[in-house]
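SEVERITY: medium
COMPONENT: batch folding queue
REPORTER: lab tech (J.R.)

DESCRIPTION
The queue accepted two submissions in a row. Attaching both inputs and their returned structure tokens so the on-call engineer can compare them side by side.

ATTACHMENT 1
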Amino acid sequence: MSLKRTVQQLFETNSNYLDAQQALNQAYSLKALSDDLYTDPLRFVYELIQNSDDAYDGYSTKTPIVHIAIIDKNYLVVANYGKSFSERDVRGICCVGCGTKKLDREKTGYKGLGFKAVFGKSDYVLIASKGIFFRFEANSKAFKWNEKWAKDQTSWETLNQQKFVYPWQICPLWTESGQIPKSIREWLFAQSEVVATIIRLKNISETQEAIEMLAKQPHVFMFLRHIKDVRFSTSTLVETSLNISVLKDGSIKISHDNNKVKSHWLLYSCRLNVPETVLGDIRLPEKLNQDKVVEMTLAAKIDANDKIEPVRGSDSVLFAYLPTKISTYNLPILVNSSFLVNASREHIHVDSLWNQWLFSCIPNETFKWIQELTKNAKWSEKAYYLLPNKIPAKDKLAERYNQSCNDSVKVIPFLLSIDKNSLSINEAVVDITMFSSDNCIGHELIRDFILHRSSPKLKLARNPFVTNSHRLRNLGITQFTWDGCMEMLQSRYFSSKFTCESDIKFIQYLYTQRNSTQIQKRLYDIPFIKDQSGSADWLMLDSTDAYVHQEVMVWLETQPPIKQWLRKF
């Protein structure tokens, strides 16, 4: 069947009612749905952007583009250059709750309601599909009164005390190019192979402000499956664009058309195996119920100095490929996944088993991401800035998230040891003193002492030391503190294993670090010169040279600067 015949058939079917009240009930239901779907000016724009993104699924093109324009100070255009409308697509947007995406795993939508959002903002919507046109128009003369309902519309309205309205939102009208407003026709014919939705807006200034705000928040496009180029034409003839590109280090750069970086993000994508326990969620759409795997993407913001910067405030929202309005949890990163959302896609269902499971995956995958980054030279020292904190919100999603924080930190080897091995937090130690470095006491003696005094016994790695970070200390990692260090240096256990060779290395280290505030503060308290009996002590060389261990003393005679430094005390 041709697209023209499909449109004509749908008009005949969806405008044919036995009774006028049936048509009116449908019209009122559609109006209520459209009004409720998207309450702010951006929501229906998001829906059209998503439709444009889905149009590139399976469609080969070098750079998938979405073009957002305001024409003649009256019309909003959201256009793409992907697949043209099929008969199935036309039927999909003319029904309620049975759209074409409900079973398509490669497309984002699943409710079959999204397109109805545009009717909350307009009474005239034109679809252009590569030279073919049809429209939805509330006041079209194509709608004829059926005399089987009553003599005429006026008498029916008087009798029933209701104004009659057709359910125009599901009644497509075939449109010839000559019926299209001139400004729109010129814009469309200047585009090559364009597929567009054109909306005559009731409040153009409100929508224009929203689009200009959208252009200043480019990260909202980051999780689209296909689109990498977003073009804006609003109040002037000048077109601006945002380009989404992947850099060599795997990060995402979003830049203006002048190549000036607008924002910079580090992304981590994973595929999650869906547990059977969540498939019983009554809200789960059929296409997700069929899947055994679901995708999740985490994004960290990178500042101009290549440092990880927490996402804050209203920017910290959850994404279901396009942003929701959920910022309650104030996560420091952006999270995108197939969350179950309400009809407006502004909120997610807190009591959903599916969403609770997805929330439990966020900390787990964050720790895995940190593990990856610690092995990347560029991001290794910055990875711990991603460590998840518990969230204070009091609901089921927060509970699952916080429980996952507790569980994941114990089992995922997200720490990188000094000798470049991945360790779990129970295998690792943070050395506040830095004495575990190879040019000082070294890791073996300190590790052995920590194990010697621990109760219950720790299960530390062969070299358990990791880079010091206050974020790790807050997670409860074992710490080798200055107090613990003093206890070790004064213990018989340590003295029995501390050789003259080790002592010489220790003295050299203290000398090289002599200007360190921490060393200067504690130097008089640190027993670091081995005596004749083999014990480490703090010895004044002028009065006790005879008691310094002979091997250490012989070495000091060859090191005048170090010996002179010691005499100053």
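ATTACHMENT 2
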Amino acid sequence: MTIEGKRNSIPLTEGPSRAAARSYLRGAGFQKDDLHKPIIGVANTWTEIGTCNVHLRELAEALKEGIREAGGTPMEFNTITISDGITMGTQGMKASLVSREVIADSIELAARGNLFDGLVGIGGCDKNMPGIIMALCRLDIPGMMLYGGSIAPGKIDGPKGEKIDITIQNVFEGIGSFAAGKIDEAGLETLEANACPGAGACGGQFTANTMAMSGEMLGISPMHLSGVPATDTDKYAATREAGRMLMDAVRANRRPSQIITRKALENTIASVAASGGSTNAVLHLIAIAREMGIALSVDDFDAISKRTPFICDLVPAGKYMASHFQEAGGSRLLAKRLIDAGHADGSTLTISGRTLAEEAALAQETPGQVVIHTFDKPLKPTGGLVILKGNLAPEGCVMKIAAADRYEHRGPARVFDCEEDCFAAVQSGKIKPGDVLVIRYEGPKGGPGMREMLQVTAAVSGHPDLSHTVALLTDGRFSGATRGFTAGHVAPEAFVGGPIAAVREGDIIHFDIPNRTLNVELSAEEIATRLKTFAPPALRWPAGVFRKYVDRVTSASTGATT
């Protein structure tokens, strides 16, 4: 007799004609009775390469326990992950955004091939979370994205012997400080040895934590359970509870199409704006919306951010880590703040079966917490994201201004056709205050893979003469750990003949945030004349996954999807 919730897997496991399939599965360790229950896919992004995902084997066991306790049969499989932090500044970083598509495709294939009745994806590093959610959107079976959790803060001794919290951002910026002669090799070694004390994803409101929070606000991740830090004593129990919650969704046939709606996406954008979240959320949320057939554009991010104050004092724009955010009250408390102030719609459904407002009503604010402010006392009157357009970015580009020290910049272009050349110029002292660093041919097609420029931005941030005086724009991306005056996702990209390809050394570029413009001080005729002789550089990868990606990937303004 089959159990409630077993919808898709009946043709795979039931009846005399499926004896061979059952034989294979029994040989793999499943019992006869297991196969009459709902079959739940557990997509794991475990790897031993880096802290973000190294603990996910253990978490998967806890998740599977919860699924079994609630009457399901979990079947675990693995997919890939690429560590953004480890590959940063190398050719390996080209694989990062491509991995989002591979994760989504591979999970979709495994689920369709095995006729799962439900699916949980466990993610840790940046592209895991959107890749999992994209797959869930395509499948539209009861499913959940579960976050492996943030790393604990690193600790170093301060000047008075006090302990100071640090993250991997301090290491990247320490490289710039070392190059500028502001710290010695021993100081850099101290940062390197202490920034990552154990398992978990990068500790600030960088991309991983932004997308984990986004999963909760979308409703596809279990609110308050998903955000428990990786090494917290409650993580195992929270993960088991998530498994039980997934089975409730399977029995109720609660599907992503009921959860991820236009209103849910708008709520999520508001949470990114209010928390100073990563610019990568723009790419990923547009990609998720496209999977659901929902119209979402870069202009929506600007409009929502403009009306949503910035209230979360989180690194890199502020002082505190993701673990402090969870301790303060987490996503439930942020949702409550947003709903109470009219910045979010509480009627949206979540994976628990409760509405967002009902989840927010369960928020427990830690007395005296200073991480999540109120909207009547915001850190800044508008959110952390802005979209600029102009003759350099007709389709738009994105800036994170949560920690902006200025709202306008005008200066001469210093033009580089790859990240490495720009980094070398910064390291060798060739960049001067007032310069505008232009890094191009790093877009979705041109990279390919739209590398993040953290190595460059961290080097600039670590240099006292440059950190508050230069600007940077690129058709590539920025890490969530980036701070400074930077515009990314410039579209159209250089590789397809976008105006950024016409920029020459010394051209004057003007950023005007209040008026949302980014322009090079050239006439339309001059830009057109220069582009007449444009020819894209030869592809470095004429075959393989990068070539497939180049042939299919869309503009950054539409999510860089394939």
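NOTES FROM REPORTER
Residues 154-194 form one domain.
No errors were logged for either attachment.
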